[in-house]
Automatic annotation (TrEMBL):
Domain Peptidase S33 tripeptidyl aminopeptidase-like C-terminal: from-to ranges: 224-287
PANTHER family given in the database record: AB HYDROLASE-1 DOMAIN-CONTAINING PROTEIN, HYDROLASE, ALPHA/BETA FOLD FAMILY PROTEIN
Organism: Flavobacterium nitrogenifigens
Source organism superkingdom: Bacteria
Domain AB hydrolase-1: 86-181
Name of this chain's protein: Pimeloyl-ACP methyl ester carboxylesterase
């Protein structure tokens, strides 16, 4: 059975009704608000596929893949027919087609891509998920579609790529974009966004550690980075409002063979479609 870990990337604006509900729960009891926060933290939002992603969606060969380690299935997208394969991993509340501009450029340069809707995301079933389910999905997809030359992950996908490499994913290079870093920092930020007292984040950490029998910090990106031997390109926007640029800088500091590329004014998602960013990715992939 795959090790369990929470999903550490909640930094979008939280609806007022959820904030009010959290405060009511906190008034009743610490145990209740901790369970409520855990439920919200592990529940992604399923967004409708935007028009810009429809071409990749329609041109991909889609397969349902069962992941035995978590007893769940994920929808995969095989885009292109080249044997030079690149794995793409979306972030929290994302989709397998979200990195379509990167995928299109890779196809134009002789690669094919494999991506997937993580559990409870996109076309994959479920309502809740956790980071270890991303990792388990990646490792199962490698078994069925690999080997991959490159792995590229955005946000939680970046953390998942680093942890997957630590856990045995074999790739020649990796690219992580806007990745989160320290799990406790992400929990603290989430609890702050809910308008709750800081000590609730400690209760939340303890709740997850008790439930899944793991240490949450073991899934922090910087710790995984310390065990990654391959070249890794770390990309992060200085103005990212959801994941502070300090996360990317800290991950880079812990890599043995890392390259740091910082952008400005692109935020957390526009960075995925920026031509300078895509050119940097291609240059990194192609150059020894």
């Amino acid at each position: 059975m795959a090790k369990k870990a929470i999903n550490p990337t909640k930094s979008l604006k939280i609806p007022k009704i959820i904030i009010i509900s959290a405060k009511i729960c906190a008034f009743i009891s610490t145990k209740l608000v901790t369970k409520f926060a855990a439920k919200i933290f592990t529940s992604p939002i399923k967004h409708k596929v935007p028009k810009r992603e429809l071409e990749m969606d329609s041109q991909s060969q889609q397969k349902l893949v069962y992941v035995p380690a978590i007893d769940k299935s994920v929808v995969t997208y095989i885009y292109g027919k080249s044997q030079r394969k690149v794995l793409l991993v979306h972030g929290w509340s994302g989709r397998g087609t979200q990195l379509f501009k990167i995928a299109d450029e890779l196809l134009a340069n002789g690669y094919s891509t494999i991506s997937f809707d993580a559990p409870a995301h996109g076309k994959s079933k479920g309502q809740t998920t956790i980071m270890s389910e991303f990792i388990a999905s990646i490792l199962e997809i490698e078994k069925q579609f690999g080997p991959f030359e490159i792995a590229i992950g955005h946000s939680l996908g970046g953390m998942s790529v680093l942890n997957s490499i630590k856990d045995g994913l074999k790739v020649e290079k990796a690219v992580i974009i806007g990745s989160g870093d320290i799990v406790q920092d992400i929990l603290d930020e989430f609890i702050f966004k809910l308008g709750l007292k800081k000590e609730i984040s400690i209760h939340l950490r303890d709740y997850f550690e008790s439930m899944y029998q793991v240490k949450m910090d073991d899934f922090s990106a910087y710790k995984a980075a310390q065990k990654v031997e391959i070249p890794v390109l770390v990309m992060h926007d200085k103005d990212d409002p959801e994941v502070s640029v300090k996360a990317g800088i800290h991950i880079h500091e812990n890599l043995k063979d890392g390259t740091l590329f910082l952008t400005e004014g692109l935020g957390h998602r526009k960075i995925l479609g920026n031509q300078n960013v895509i050119k940097k990715i291609l240059d990194f992939i192609k150059n020894a």
